[in-house]
């Protein structure tokens, strides 16, 4: 089934609605309508539709390209979508009642790891070079510390502070950008301004001077550097390699009323994810992603992004990041509740909600490893669902912190930069 553009939000209110019966094509295939945003991390969904993995499981996967995460959230809630490509924090936010339409949302399957990066304007990076004597090959932490020096000077001289774009208040991009800034000694709530910018518009906004940097998924960071307007200063792997990224989300009532279809879809996505991870398939995947119906970006940039080969600045400086995208390996598809709880800790850290035992329960409930196991088998061991994160060599946080999901208040209190005594929020107005 091919994707199509369907950009109108529309829909009917979800309250009190009854799940529609499964739609079945004349040949017997179960139709599953899936919303997605044009990003490389939608690869598993796109591959499942384009390369026959969904059809093999008797599913006609109807992909609908959308323009914003708020649209995707609402159209899933309003039953225009059965499942959706979604930011990993969005089901957690919904479970906690956060956001302007916090309808019940769960994820039984992660769509992989990696893909994000932080890009600054060439103007701002040049100031960092002058202020901190950067040579160009510094670590992500050194770049954040150099930015902190520039901000100190901007404050002293009475200049307007930098504006950075991210994709959504409840997003990996928001939390990773904040984490990077804070690791360098920058308070993201007082030292900079954060705004929402849709991923495909980030390089245009950077070129126009509307923003001074952004955190977003591939391929839009390298689009900015290739255009000569941006410098990539940090990648997801620099911040926390196994940080949760995008997920396949659905409504609990849809999962409950369509158990066989959901199980078949998970099997199809698992097979597609395995295929996407095989190097010999990356060129075919890049060709599919580059199509105007999907990511609509230059195929050469997508090929290099999939290989982790980056042009990081307008001068052509190169960086290779191993495993920049992992679509299946190392349990990349497993919806581990400890990842949901780390997301919850970031919501607490940045004042989106306060801590409570009930909050922990709700946040954890958004990730559904039981549905993953029902489709794919008994592993991993449920005893490992709330593991300590960031304690394994090669999978550590940029600032050396370790996340123990059994001690969230102490974890949050251990950061020198945070929002103290946050009051819970119920709406983000986005």
From TrEMBL:
CDD domains: PBP2_NrtA_CpmA_like. Its main location: membrane. The keyword Cell inner membrane applies. GO terms for cellular component: endomembrane system. It is found in: Endomembrane system. This is ABC transporter substrate-binding protein. InterPro entries: NrtA/CpmA_ABC-bd_dom. The lineage of its organism: Bacteria, Pseudomonadati, Pseudomonadota, Alphaproteobacteria, Hyphomicrobiales. It comes from Pararhizobium antarcticum. It comes from the Bacteria. Keywords: Cell inner membrane, Cell membrane, Membrane, Transport. The keyword Transcription does not apply.
